[in-house]
Design brief:
single chain; 231 residues; mainly alpha; Tetracycline Repressor, domain 2; two-stranded parallel sheet; 10 helices
Length: 231
């Protein structure tokens, strides 16, 4: 299924909007391909320039550095995740069913039929798993936050937190649970694939097993007591 999805990201992320030119769109698409194949540490603008047959200077006209480019790509991913949640839960009444839908969407392999624009959704998902925490685990986090570069991630977590509050009004930690769920969905998948002794999915290697664990985590937390702070 192709979803008609368009987003305007924070202009502080780029020097020239990559969506405004064919070359800019090629920079984004090829960046996803290279970071997916090489990893963020080995990715450089020099390699990107060679991939799309242009100069490094040309790429620097669009992005100040590769960190801003990474934030741009991850923000695309967060924004699309929120879009999917809105799309998939729009006509759902049950908060429990909404939560299960969120969990299902966070483990992308079960939703590989969903596509947006011409970006490689699978590659972007794996980039988010392996590299997304690098966008904020950096010395520039406070300045970037002041410039609202993490807004799509905050919007996604707020969307999920609001669903938690539908399920459990008065719950004390909705935002903490929402961000923990997102990060945990990535970490457990990464552990399953690369560090299996850090998880319990090493035998089946099934995304469905991760979903079961995430549901246990979320509903176990929401259903614990009244959600009051422990002293």
């Amino acid at each position: 299924m192709h979803l008609d999805f368009n987003i305007k990201l924070n202009s502080q992320l780029y020097l020239r909007d990559p969506e405004s030119t064919d070359l800019g769109k090629e920079i984004i698409a090829s960046s996803i391909k290279l970071i997916y194949n090489l990893g963020y540490e080995q990715f450089t603008f020099k390699k990107l320039a060679a991939e799309i047959t242009c100069t490094e200077a040309t790429i620097y006209r669009y992005f100040e550095n590769k960190h801003k480019l990474l934030i741009y790509l991850i923000d695309c991913y967060w924004a699309f995740m929120e879009f999917q949640i809105v799309f998939k839960t729009n006509n759902v009444v049950s908060p429990k069913e909404k939560i299960n839908t969120v969990i299902d969407l966070l483990v992308w392999e079960d939703n590989s039929e969903l596509h947006f624009s011409k970006l490689d959704q699978k590659a972007l998902y794996y980039i988010a798993i392996a590299e997304s925490n690098k966008t904020y685990l950096s010395k520039g986090v406070d300045e970037n936050n002041k410039d609202a570069l993490y807004q799509p991630y905050k919007d996604l977590c707020k969307r999920i937190a609001d669903i938690f509050m539908e399920y459990k009004p008065g719950f004390t930690y909705p935002k903490s649970l929402a961000s923990s769920l997102v990060e945990m969905s990535h970490l457990q998948y990464y552990f399953m694939q690369h560090l299996p002794r850090l998880c319990d999915f090493e035998e089946k290697k099934s995304p469905k097993e991760i979903e079961k664990f995430l549901a246990h985590f979320v509903f176990g937390t929401l259903d614990y007591g009244g959600g009051e702070k422990l002293i």
